Amino acid sequence: MTFRPRPEQDRRLSHPRGIPTRPSRSRQAKAWLVAACAAGAAMLAPLPASAQGRLEAHYEASLAGIAVGRGTWGIEIGDDYYSASAQGATAGLLKAFSGGTGTGSAQGRLVNGAMVPLNYTATISSKKSETIKINLANGGVKDFTIEPEPPVDADRIVVTEAHKKGVIDPMTSSLVRVPGNGELLGPEACRGGSSVFDGRLRYDLKLDFKRMETVKAEKGYHGPAVVCAVYFTPVAGYIPDRPVIKYLAAERRMEIVLVPIAGTRVLVPFRLSIPTPFGPAVLEATQFNTVALPPRVAKTQ
């Protein structure tokens, strides 16, 4: 999903007690939040999907209680396909709290009930414009491009061909399918993990069940939700000495709140919370409208 910056995002944020104040604190906050949002961009690898439904949602991003961005997310799950698109400040949550504009999209097929990603595109414009395109096949990355091509950093852990196997794109991975025919919202939704490649960073995410709660959007969904802890493990494509990477890998308080797309056993994020040294970074749905779609009638001769 992507976000449109709010005017308030230019307001300076003070450091919490114990962190020295520096002239570059706004840039430091942005660096932390870019990495923090990257960690929350994907939740679980998609499992077999069933039924059909559609979601149209609006989200707001805030930092330390100050609104800093807005975005939209649309998802459609058919009988043999799925698609997702986002618009706003960034694609894939990478800079939801630090400004910019962008779009993102992902498409895939449903094969024997399983989501099989085909392609992912994200265009991000801040000080510079960048487009990431990923094509996937046979459970991994077929090819990908970043335009313009980024400079080589000798300190960055190289993403190898092996790292690009058995992975999915960030947008597809945010669709969490609960297997079976039993209870949709419960501990089962927070089991498992995913391997994600976003064009630069290769990372793993694991969820653990925390609790159940009731959520209410300003418009749309009002009902039960499952809350999962999110654990981030960088694998490749990152610089090990960067404080944000170390912080996120050690952080145990990140949470994702999941609710269902009507007519399916697919859950999507309603709220994402990431503690940072500058206060909590929160992404939450303000509008969450979802409907079940009627099954497609097969054509007859």
Structure overview:
The protein is mainly beta and 301 residues long. It has one domain. 9% of the residues lie in helices and 46% in strands. The chain is built from three helices and 16 strands. The chain has a 16-stranded mixed sheet that branches. Helix 1 crosses helix 3. 42% of the residues are buried.
Outline:
This protein is mainly β. The protein contains 3 helices and 16 strands. The chain has one domain.
Q: What structural category characterises the helix and strand content?
A: mainly beta
Which parts are unreliable, with pLDDT below 50 for 5 consecutive residues or more? 2-23, 38-49, 89-98
Radius of gyration from the alpha-carbon trace, in angstroms: 19 Å
Helix content: under 10%
Count of extended strands: 16
What's the helix-strand series? EHEEEEEEEHEEEEEHEEE
Give the helices and strands, then pairings:
Elements: E1 4-5, H1 25-39, E2 53-63, E3 66-77, E4 81-88, E5 101-111, E6 114-125, E7 129-137, E8 140-147, H2 170-173, E9 176-177, E10 193-197, E11 202-216, E12 219-220, E13 222-236, H3 243-250, E14 255-260, E15 266-274, E16 281-292
